[in-house]
Structure formats: structure tokens, C-alpha cells
Amino acid sequence: MIDNIKRDHSRFRSIVKGKIKQDLKKYVTHGEMIGRKGKDMVSIPLPQIEIPRFRFGDREKGGVGQGNGKPGDPIGQGDPQPGEGEAGDQPGQHSLEVDLSLQELAEILGEQLALPKIEPRGHNTLKSKTDKYTGIANQGPNSLRHFKRTFRETLRRQIATGIYNPENPVIIPIRRDMRYRSWKTDVRHENNAVIIYMMDVSGSMGDEQKEIVRTEAFWIDTWLRSQYTGIETRFIIHDATAREVDENTFFKTRESGGTLISSAYKLCEKIIETDYPPMDWNIYPFHFSDGDNWSGEDTRLCLNILDSHLLKVCNVFCYGQVESRYGSGQFYKDLKEHFGHQHDSVILSKIENKEGILQSIKDFLGKGK
Q: What does pTM read for this prediction?
């Protein structure tokens, strides 16, 4: 029975994953999952999955209360009962919320976009030690006593020595019967990564643009967390000046000042130098903007920071240009002219609207770097 339940549950999970994969673009563009995100799980609203069942035809009605009636009794559904108001007679649209782990969600994203597994840069790996119980020992603390194995050893000894009495089965262990759980330390070498999100919050970046960035960041996080054991995330907002903020402030702040992109790149450089030695960390800066910058001089300063520092320490540098009616898009053109569209360490992506989020994710993560 338990095996059947496990098999049915596994089959249901497979159906759910297939449905999510089929409608992945809808979930990405609508951003429905983000509001239901927990620490390790995501609640996903699915259309009601109908379970096959028998239905009575029109010629044979079944069920309780189908006996002889009296003249004048209503048949079928009958008249509306008090309190029913103007309710319709059609079935409603039901949805089913299914919990899916972020790891499972990452697998679906990877399969759908054909994302390669990331090969970490040649950084030093960090050691993680985990104690695992792997066997049985004759000595150990009482807190690790293995009662079942101790009972077995005691019973075996009493039978072998002939002192076991089936009529009075008293099992009394002695010291040499004691068995304890033993462990060994498992040392694993793990790659850590940091994601540094930067976003222009000047007046030209509206709520629609921020929602696009928020949705894309959720999926980028989901994939990178499936590739690295340890992930840290930092957030930088900028207009004419830059500052580090928490996640909530990052997506909800809107300023009215000008735009100096170099201020964000300088702060990103400082954070890396202070907290993330390139020999120990895989570093992923993502910058989102509508392409406006204050001047060509500041753009040249940005290119100099990228060439002289950021590109030397980062796995890749990703720039996503979110289309805005107020943005000129010039910064994308400047990056493309300077680095070329196929530069190994600089990935550029245009995000015209929510429909373009999936392609942008593939642009950023498709190289497996």
C-alpha cells in the first residue's frame, strides 16, 4: 500500500512538473510564484487537475433520495433555494496550489531553456565539514547507544550461553553487549557565489520596469542557487549617487534625480574588494537600466571600471536594458560598441517587456559561466 502511494505521488509530481514546464512562460511573465516564495519552497497555482471518475448518464440517475416522490415535487436541480441569490449554474474555475522546491523549479527552468551546468572559475573552494553516522562501534557515549543492536547482541549472547528462558524472556545487557552509533567527518569542497544586483532608480524607471527586474532576479537566483552551495546576494540602487540597500528597498525605491551609472560600478567594485576575494568567490554582477546615462564622460568612466577591475574578477558581467518610454537606450549601444555582442565576459540583453524575460534569462545564463 505504501509503495502504491509513493508511486502515485511520484506520478502526480511528474504531471505537475510537465504542466509547469508547458506553461513556464505564463508563470514567468505573470510573476505569480514570487509572492508565494518560502525559504526553500514555492507555491504554484495550477488549474484544477480533474481526477477521472464515473458519471451517471441522463437515462439512469443514481444516488441517495432517488425514490418515489409526490405529485408537484421538483425534479432535477429543482428551484433555487432561499439564500442562493443570483448564483449561476456553471462550474467555477478552481485552482490548485502545489508546493515545489526551488531545486525542482531550477530543473524545470534548465530543461526548458536548455541551460548548461555552470562551471565555476578556478577559484579556491571552501571546505564544508559534515558529521555522518555511518556504522556501529563497541564504545561510545550513552547518548549514541544503539538500542536495537544492543538488544540483538544481548539476545545472541544469552542464547549461546544457554541462559535465555523463552518462558521468562528477560534480556539484560552487560557492558560487552553495548553497541553505539559511530560517525565519520565528511569534508566537501564547495564553491560559493555572490550575486550583486544594480538598478537605476531614477524617474525614468517606473513600476513596470521594476517588476520586470524583480521577476527576472527571482529566476536568476533560482538557477544560480541550484548550481552553488553557498549564495549571497547584495543590492545596489543608483541615480546620480549609489547606495547599498536591502531587497525590499531595492525593488520599491524610486528617485527623481539624474543618472550616473559609474557610481554603482564604483560601489560594486568596493564591495568585491572588501568582502569577496576573487580566489574564493564566483562573482556575478547584474545591472539593470533603461539605458540613460548623464554624459559620455561618465560612460567612458564606466567602461574603464569594467576593463580595469570588474571584468578581471567576475565570472561574467550582465547588463539588462529594460525598455522605457523615457529611456534612450544609449548605454546598451555604448557597451555593444566597446565590447562587441559576443564578448566572453560581458553579456548584454534587451528586455522589451515581460514577454522578453525568458529570453533575457537564457542570454545571461546560457553560456554556463
A: 0.65
